[in-house]
Design brief:
- By secondary structure, the chain is α/β, with parallel strands linked by helices.
- About 55% of the residues lie in helices and about 5% in strands.
- Bound molecules: zinc ion (ZN).
- Zinc ion (ZN) binds next to helix 12.
């Protein structure tokens, strides 16, 4: 069966078959992608079987397909994707990430990035408060750039414009990303976020948008900027826009790049690459931070409702994460 043919009911049937083979006290966690399951891999209890869901639409379709009893043993975890998910939020056994996706949850909510930077910078003698200031500066840059790129891509998607291009290395088609910006290294070393118009112009060339397409994206963004956010009652609120538009994978990518430049020429070990940086993020998660993570709070609620254990206990959780 190809991925394209895989749909909600088929995923539901597969889950049903797996449930029948599992011991009665075991549960299935269905997440959208490998990145989502790996973001959670360190905190799941042993009796949890992980199933990749092939996207949000299939996950929601499979959730509808299953019976109430089957849903008690199947937890679906889907990405927010910056959409209005009010209807989905009300459903049992279906959890939506607090930020745009699970990776960005890990990056933002748990504030791990700043902690990693402080530890990396603090290899040399110096004031900790200075490192904290530098770390906050890096954090703001990463958030702002990922948000700006995510916003343009989201608007283009909504307008039905081309947002995919052929990857120069793999030859496969993928979404346009922060790494396609030609001066990405300069931005990451100087912590200067390129202007909205600069990113728009680069994407226009890469994706062969017309003048009319560019005007549509610009107008839609301007209309979005004047709206006030619900939480802070501010227009153009970076915190809320970041939650909605910043893609977790790009946040991690930018975080690793910034760290590489900050470490360049410094003493101590070399900067971690993308995968090592991802592991560092997970290792920075404390059980206290997890308790404050809405995604985890929602999983705990499901545990109470369904009567099954999904997450390790806080003590075991901390120990497991430290082993990364
Ligand atoms: Zn806000």
């Amino acid at each position: 069966m190809s991925i394209l043919q895989f749909n909600g009911p088929q995923l539901g049937q597969k889950i049903r078959m797996v449930l029948q083979t599992l011991p009665s006290d075991h549960v299935i966690l269905v997440a959208e992608s490998n990145a989502d399951t790996s973001a959670l891999s360190g905190i799941l209890a042993d009796a949890v079987h992980v199933q990749k869901g092939m996207g949000k639409v299939n996950c929601v379709g499979a959730h509808q397909y299953l019976t109430d009893e089957e849903r008690r043993r199947t937890l679906f975890l889907v990405d927010c994707d910056g959409e209005d998910n009010q209807e989905l939020l009300a459903k049992d056994a279906l959890i939506i990430s607090e930020n745009r996706d699970l990776e960005s949850d890990m990056f933002f909510r748990l504030r791990s990035f700043e902690e990693i930077l402080v530890r990396q910078f603090a290899q040399k003698d110096g004031s900790l408060s200075l490192f904290r200031t530098a770390a906050r500066e890096c954090h703001s840059f990463v958030l702002e750039l990922a948000t700006r790129v995510g916003l343009i891509r989201d608007i283009a998607n909504r307008l039905g414009l081309q947002t995919r291009l052929e990857d120069m290395c793999t030859g496969k088609r993928r979404k346009v990303s922060v790494r396609d910006l030609k001066d990405i290294d300069t931005y990451c070393s100087s912590l200067q976020t390129p202007a909205f118009e600069t990113i728009l112009s680069e994407f226009r060339n890469l994706l062969t948008w017309t003048d009319g397409d560019v005007i549509s994206v610009r107008n839609s963004s301007a209309a979005n900027s004047v709206k006030k956010c619900r939480i802070h009652n501010e227009s153009d609120c970076l915190a809320c826009k970041g939650r909605r538009f910043a893609n977790g994978h790009e946040l991690v990518d930018l975080g690793a790049r910034v760290l590489a430049f900050k470490r360049h020429g410094g003493e101590g070990p070399p900067a971690p690459n993308f995968r090592e940086f991802e592991h560092l993020l997970r290792a920075s998660v404390t059980s206290d931070a997890c308790a404050d993570w809405q995604t985890v709070t929602r999983i705990r609620r499901f545990e109470t409702w369904g009567g099954f254990t999904i997450l390790r206990t806080p003590g075991a959780l901390q120990q497991n994460l430290q082993s990364y």
